[in-house]
Amino acid sequence: MVDVLADPELYRFTGGTPPNPDELESRYRAQLAGPPRGDQVWHNWILRLAGSDIAVGFAQATVTGDSADVAWLVATKWQGQGFATEATTAMCNWLATRGTAQFNAHIHPDHAVSGGVAAAVGLQPTAEVDSDGELVWASLEKQW
To answer: Which CATH fold would you assign to the domain 8-138?
Structure first.
């Protein structure tokens, strides 16, 4: 995943810098430990090319009750090929079969590509802006 996350362009809207191997290991240890809130469940998937070990990105969800905040990232060289939409659709469908009814994504207002992924999976922009200045996209109708 260090290679997937290596391009500084990935952080243009979210801030931060590419993680080094130690930082990535620390991040994954925290993910394995689970959320600090007992009412949440974290799900994290590494996206790979079919039939290979080549990682192209990740998808993740934080589930609280019947609601999930979802996110995705695809390495720069693999963008524009539908990986984010395919993974996010599969993730939402999988979560829906386990009782998740509401989906939200927090997207920088200038990040049109992520907005396109959100729209493709059935999320719509709301008037809500989170504390990071990101627009909240939500599933407004039950569709899963």
So the answer is: Aminopeptidase (3.40.630)
